Fold each of these.
Amino acid sequence: MDKMLVDGFGDVTITNDGATILEEMEVQHPAAKMMVEVAKTQDDEVGDGTTTSVVVAGELLKRAEDLLDQDLHPTVIVDGYRIASAKALEILDDIAIKVDPTDKAMLKRIATVSLASKLLAEYEQIAELAVNAVLQVAEKTEEGGYRIDIDDIKMEKKPGESLLDTVLIKGIVLDKEVVHPGMPKRIADAKIALVDSPLEVEKTEFDAKINIENPEQMKSFLDEEEKMLKDMVEKVAAAGANVLLCEKGIDDVAQHYLAKKGILAVRRVKQSDIEKLVKATGAKIVSNLDDLKPSDLGKAAVVEERKIGDDKMTFVEGAKNPKAVTILVRGGSERLVDEAERSIHDALCVVRDVVRDPRIVGGGGAPEAEIAKQLRAFAQKQEGKEQLAVLAFANGLEAVPVALAENAGLDPIDIMVQLRAALGLYADGLVGESLQQHGFDLGCTPEPSFRVLNERARGDELRDVLVAPPPLIATWNQGDESLNAPSLDRAVRHAIQIRAPR
């Protein structure tokens, strides 16, 4: 279900992305701020699973509160949680299934699961688009794995048309138009020069005055300025370039001469776009036109100015093996496009995670339930009060399938009973490929094991800080009644009172 968020300036955001919702909220409480940091870290590291990380972290704190009420010391709780966390990661490694990182069918299913709860759930082609984009920018490493920088996939938003018109461009789309009306609007077999210095007459760094006493001196001055700009254009043409993409400005006189040479030019291109163009076309960035050589030029099948909506954009596409691509996101309104961009970003991230670490687990809360089951058996072997914390950790993980059942309109008690019964059929647990041997089809709801692992890690780190805070946090005014929020806050205050130095 989407949420409508209105900030202090009246700007409206409509989304169901957990990280976006928490980022837009004006949070003051120190414990709640840590929750926001958990979501941000999960979003930065994994790209998806932000809501699950906050749910797990909150449930672990809630269980910790119950243990605090039983007079268990915070240090004992944290130690038990650490033991349970380490064991949970071992179990997760065991139940993960290895997959082929280039299997497009499996990657598409994983992307579809990520999009299932979002705006683009009904658009299967978006999942395929995300898979193609990630595989296009993936680079093989010496160790046999893949290196993927998600920043190599540019997201260009443009309201208009429908979500079905969202396309993958194997190249770069610049939200810029050709600088001069006399220039060609389309160049086939483009040879591209990337320049990060201006095609303008250099100005002095200090105030300078020129005394002109007659018209001849004025003409001489203007002619010399024109000659300098013409020489710059000649250097570009001499290198064989028919497309010039400049990070800085291009003088009007230089534009005129570029148009006469039949060179398509775009100015004030963003530095991030210039860097992507290097990967997409193979060009080298040149700072001094004197150093421009034919070997510095990039290549593309076509460079063309097209009208998208009410704006003109420049498309650079058709390179031999571009390692930077663009997803042009379309939609009926600006808010729709913004939410579509967030959804596609999540899909890109989960596909990247599987390509980098090709292991998956079942979705729908199944891995959490299996980990909880094995942790309960593991807890019986623990001596001391840490056993209670391990059991609390196991129970806390089941908050994920319970939340999913509630959101689906099902009875969570019935669902949990059925889930535990199904998992209980296999006393040794479902490990790796044995899932498929027992007839389980993970293809319907697969999730990256890397994502689940990070969700557990984020919750564990927050737990360590809030359940057993350092003495410095004891400076919190314990008598401040404005902080008397129920549930989560009480656990934190209780922990602080226990740890506060006397």
Amino acid sequence: MLGRQNTHCVVVGTLLPSRQLAILAAVLLCFELTVPNCAIAQPAKAKNSLQVAQDLHRKRYREFSNEIKKLADDCDEKGLNDEANEVRSRDFEADFQSFHVNKLPTEVQSDVSVNANGVEQRIWQKRLRYLETEYAKDLYIQSRAALRHKLTTHAYNLIREAALHDPDNEQVRKILGFVRRKNEWVTPFAAKQMNEGKIWHDKFGWLLKTHVDRYEDGERLFRTQWISAEKEKLRRTDFGSAWEVRTDHYLIKTNVSLEKGVEMGKALEDFYGVFTETFAAFFNTPEQLQKLFDTPVNNIRADRWYTVHFYRSREEYIERMRKFFPAIEQTNGVYLTSDRIAHFYFDPNRDHEGTLFHEATHQLFYESEKTTRTICDNHHFWIIEGIACYMESFQRNEDGTFSLGDLSHIRFFGARNNLLRKNYYVPLREFSGFGMQEFQLQPEPTLAKNYTQAAGLARFFMHYDNGRYREALVKHLTQLYSASSRVREDAESLDELTGIEFTELDRQYAEDAAEVDTRFTRK
């Protein structure tokens, strides 16, 4: 819940040498001649420009995929069956219906000749490496073309895909916010910590190397003295002396435990990475992203921290927060715009991550600007809560990947159920007319149904028809969170931004929900 201010991803044989890059350049030129920059201002033509860019991407992916299949078949013919499976694992198509994100490797890849045992090993590994790096170059060129046509989200997605195939591409890594330190790709903050003699410990966070053994033996450095972990826990009970955990983008203050603070920090950092990639167009105008493309690695700006308070009990959470937010008993967590802090509490019987990601969404969007401002007092409030509910679907999977927008998530299932079985749906034109008060002061169960509908609609605008409306939705959010009161009050509605009438959007949403529901019913 947003507190008010006063209270409250792919692969190749002999693809893309210079001749094929020349062909790509010709295709991109055709793209630019077909879709001039001046056309972007017209919603219908903006849609066409995205379709052109997506068609080009799919065409290049199919060529890449065919080359990967050929290489895998060659490995099978030589009896290299395990190697063939490894090659095939590099053939993954970008998913527009649910985001599935792989973590990027931190270590710089070793030269193939160092790892390979035997001639046949070197041949297939070098060929695979060549195919992936050339495809990544292709994606980078496509991203530059997309950016010139204001397709910021698509451009950033292409960059992320390129990094999966060539994680040592310095241009791509730079855009994603990494610097190279020796044989590792790290964030600027992590590089600074390492330069100060610290290492990241999965239980205790950033520690001086000389302190690691003592921490693992049960000692703790409290201010300037070494004491036992038990004594430190007693001293940290008072929130004024709580643990402080710093990660790349977060400052977490907690009196639960150091380990819980670090655990929360890791979850938030995973979330932050996917969030900022998903909404790259929100945080970067095409001009800003163009500058990021062109800025030398060493000039990447230092990251800021977002503050999170994590209390040891619900009782403490309510006691500390009631004066700021009278209805605090009705919440499991809250982000207050007045103090710019996300507040949560520890409950051993509850999974915190859904609430954590919901409030983190409010925080990241709101703190995109330094200006203190009200958000959607008079209209469009549904998307403020809807996009936060949508981000609750963020999943950290056991295989190290991340996913977002899973159709089986309880929020999206509930939205389909309310629409198709309970016949509950507020038409989008009316829904968009609700301001904060009108939306949040609805009686139960209407309020819960409206939150659920908002989540379903947010997913629709993010994913429908290969992300057809995603750029429009991000632009809508950009206007609603603008530092300018005039821009916020005059924010374009989604029918204006998409070029599609509200009644048609309602029809598409219902049709999409029914199609998805049928798919799940068949399972």
